[in-house]
From TrEMBL:
Residues 20-65 form the HTH cro/C1-type domain. Transmembrane segments: none annotated. This is Helix-turn-helix transcriptional regulator. Gene3D superfamilies: lambda repressor-like DNA-binding domains (1.10.260.40). The keyword DNA-binding applies. Keywords: DNA-binding. It comes from Sphingorhabdus buctiana. Pfam families: HTH_3 (PF01381).
């Protein structure tokens, strides 16, 4: 499966937030650990709602968590 046309800083933000686990983040946004792992790896595109929830957990605007990397 090809990578999606955007990058994210979720792994870095988790580390900077007291080494938050994927499971912890998933619990905070209402998705599974596996979903967070797939989003981090660029294998799954979150819904807009989930993307905003992730950004809110870190106190960041959406564009500081996700970046367009397409053409």
């Amino acid at each position: 499966m090809a990578r999606l046309p955007f990058d994210n800083d979720i792994k870095t933000l988790r580390f900077l937030s007291g080494e938050m686990t994927q499971g912890d983040l998933g619990d905070k946004v209402g998705v599974t650990r596996q979903t967070i792992a797939a989003i981090e790896q660029g294998k799954y595109s979150p819904s807009l709602e989930v993307a905003f929830r992730i950004a809110r957990v870190f106190g960041k605007p959406l564009e500081e968590v996700f970046r367009w990397a397409g053409d």
